[in-house]
Design a protein that fits this description.
By secondary structure, the protein is an all-alpha fold. About 75% of the residues lie in helices and about 0% in strands. The termini are far apart.
Length: about 270
């Protein structure tokens, strides 16, 4: 507490900032150069203001290019909504991982799907197509089916990511996966928890979330014993079949082409 009786929150804030910085630097989604890593290490709390500036530039860029367009307000609303969804997904991920650290049983499929849909699917798959629909003069309320297809596609994409994090070739995907060490609510561990017997559950509880290579190897051994790789291949096959069926049910052929193009880029991807 400061001398004037006011609680000094800086130490706690700096602790949280350092934890977040460590997570960002370790996130395989960001391909940092050495110089970039040094910059992140030096910038300190200025990064908080940088984040605010970047957020504000979304609206400034949209205004610069689209303020005279009839869909401008809808475009702003779309970006604001997707930003909220993505931030909510990130929060769910952080909360689930933190609270699950002492109880792996918290990792259930509904929780996983909710995290993935909000954290990944909306911004990476739905947002670009929704922007195109608005620019084409379409009402997004008339394309709920398209939204559902893209969210399902984004979920499939993240499941692939989880699989490659564990079983992908580092030389091909360009990273060494750390979902096991980071105690991530991964599709693989959720599937394993649903299928494991008592002995396998004990092995997962004893080793998941630990950085010791032997612990990581033990978790992967459980995955192999449970045939999780085959479970993924079946999931991929059925997901592709369901997505193609949903896409071909769309009356608009141009939409079909766009959706099939998205799916074609990720189906059976190796990185």
């Amino acid at each position: 507490m400061a001398s004037n009786g006011i609680v000094d929150v800086r130490p706690k804030f700096e602790k949280i900032y350092l934890e977040l910085k460590a997570q960002i630097l370790a996130d395989p989604a960001f391909d940092y150069t050495v110089d970039a890593r040094q910059w992140v290490d030096k910038v300190g709390l200025i990064a908080v203001n940088d984040g605010i500036l970047l957020r504000n530039h979304i609206c400034r860029i949209l205004k610069m290019h689209f303020r005279t367009k009839p869909y401008y307000v809808d475009l702003l609303d779309l970006f604001n909504e997707v930003e909220f969804q993505t931030a909510s997904g990130q929060l769910l991920d952080l909360i689930t991982t933190h609270e699950g650290a002492t109880d792996l049983s918290k990792y259930k499929m509904p929780t996983y799907v909710r995290i993935v849909q909000y954290k990944t699917a909306y911004y990476s798959f739905y947002l670009p197509v929704a922007c195109a629909l608005l620019m084409a003069g379409e009402n997004l309320d008339n394309h709920v089916d398209v939204k559902n297809i893209l969210v399902q596609m984004g979920t499939y994409f993240q499941v692939q990511d989880d699989y490659l994090d564990c079983f992908g070739d580092p030389e091909v995907i360009g990273k060494i996966g750390t979902d096991i060490e980071d105690f991530k609510c991964s599709w693989l561990v959720v599937q394993a928890l649903e299928r494991a017997n008592e002995s396998q559950l004990q092995r997962l509880y004893a080793n998941y979330g630990k950085t010791d290579p032997s612990c990581v190897a033990e978790v992967k051994a459980v995955y192999r014993d449970l045939g999780i790789q085959d479970v993924f291949l079946e999931y991929e096959r059925t997901s592709y079949k369901e997505l193609i069926s949903s896409i071909e049910a769309q009356e608009n052929e141009s939409l079909q082409l766009v959706l099939k193009s998205f799916l074609g880029k990720i189906y059976k991807r190796q990185k």
